Amino acid sequence: MEFVALVVTFALVVAGVAIRRANASLRENARLKADLHDLARHVARFMEQSRQNGDVAPSAEAATPASDAAPRDTLAARATMTTAEPEALATSAEPTPSLEPAQAVPETTSAEPEPIREAAREEAPAQSGPAPRAARANAERAFATKWTVWIGGIALAMGGLLIVRYSIEAGFFGPGVRLMMGAVFAFCVAAASEFIRRRDLRNNMREAYSDQIPAVLAGVSVLSAFGVAYAAHAVYGMIGAGAAFIIMGAIGLAALAASLLHGSKFGLFGLLGSYVTPFLVGGSTPDFMALSIFIAVVTSAAFALHIRRPSNLLTGGAIVGHTLWAGLIELDPGASSWGSFLLIVAIVLALLISESAQREQRASEAASDGASTWTAHCAFAAPLVLAGVLWVELGGGLWPQLTLVAIVAGNIMASIRYPGLAALAPLAGAGATGMTLLWPAADGPLRVSPRLVYELIHLDLAPTSAAGLTLFATFIGALISAPTLAALMAPWRAGAGRPFERGCLAFASALAPVCIMLAASLRLNGFNRAMGFALIAACLAIGFAVACELLFRKEQTRTPNPADPMAYVGSAGFAAGSAIAIGLGIAFALRETWLVVGFAIASSGVALVARWRPIPLLRGMSASLGTAALARIFWQPVLTDVGDLP
Fold it and tell me: pTM score > 0.85 for this model?
């Protein structure tokens, strides 16, 4: 018992020392900032007096640094100059007659007096020396100020928990009094956090490290409130599961809202607490409807905060938590497709934050942030990947199929509407191809297993797919190809963007249907000879060739540099799709022995088209088809089983 009391005392002492040191650093920072502003005002006043006395030309007023915009090191250098050379400046300010006409300063000379120019010349070498030391000093001060505050907050939280444990073991108070004291402690810490935050705002100390102390105290308050609610439910049984769920959910949402004041790191307290709450208060038979709605509300709150105050950290945490909960709910046998509901919510929220980010970017006319772009990609990719995993594990059905269609449509819409997300189009095409390849078997889902991975590597899946594969493959291929082709033809948004964006749309539009057709053939007939698939491949080849020609003409009229091969990246994608469709059509229509002849003819035809149209990748496609024909000859030089017809 004495050891526990010693630990509690030590924790409280550490917390007090850390907070005291942080407050001292804040006060020192505020004093230095005030001194810097005073120095800037003195320099500006001196420059104005010098200009009025005639030592500085009127044009020097434009070169006078503003008190707030001047760099700190420049102000310090000029202040040093003013204190080091007062006699020279005072002498230059006196209206003494010039003894030599050649020494008179004409009106066309530099606007700055000689001492200022000398200080400016000395400024560059002076900065090169102490700059690394100043940077190291700032890093050390940041480490000492921030991390001591966080360590103090952790010590304060641990001290509170240990005090509660000590009171329980000693039997000082009953359960009701303990919970009341914990609630009072959480309220007092929250009030102290708000008091310090408002005091810092009044003292104009927001640019310092002052936001660390209120955030830490608010985090301690949130953790204490969660602990009180959990103890009231799980330890003492004073409230039921429903009341505890509502209280802890409200605490988490309040912490998310408070992140607008304390920053995204504080919002992680509320986000983590909200996502963990169902684990803490859930029963043996959870209400999946209430649970799914609660998870959707928490994620929506996090995304709404991202719209109000962008935070990649908070949004990334929401994406991870929402995806995990959607998977856990969908894998439960009694969930009744509530996981699919969460996946659709995720794709809708991803579209909302992308639309908000684009509007803010247009309003500010600023370039998009790379981290925000990656966060948006993850927001769209996470539901697609999870839907694919659930598709393999659980099999098909109406709700899973509608969910897949909605997710693919959301990715295609985002890739077209938001140019920075054009890479989502190939991702959606790859996802649709994988779902076609992993279509459930007639006797049930394929299930995630090492055997499935082995069969995928060797493309040795049994052609025993369930009904509906042909219709699904046709619809999902058209859903990917048609909108992207229309955006390129218009051109609209990403279809009129940079070569990379247009290339993503073009290759997704051309290659996704071809890959989906190949996956469907493997699952339906084991990639054997089939005239039906040969006709589909021929139609795709003709359609892509027409689209290539039309798009090539449009690109010729729109490009400012016709000699740039990247200007024709859109037509190159459809040329590649047409060439691959020709090769697959030959493979579907001819016997295996005649494949070498078909590939050779296709290679010659693509080479002739490459001479007529300077489209990138055509020559490479011709060489690839020719290489495939030669490889077939080298693999089996003797041709057997020719037959009467190819």
Answer: no
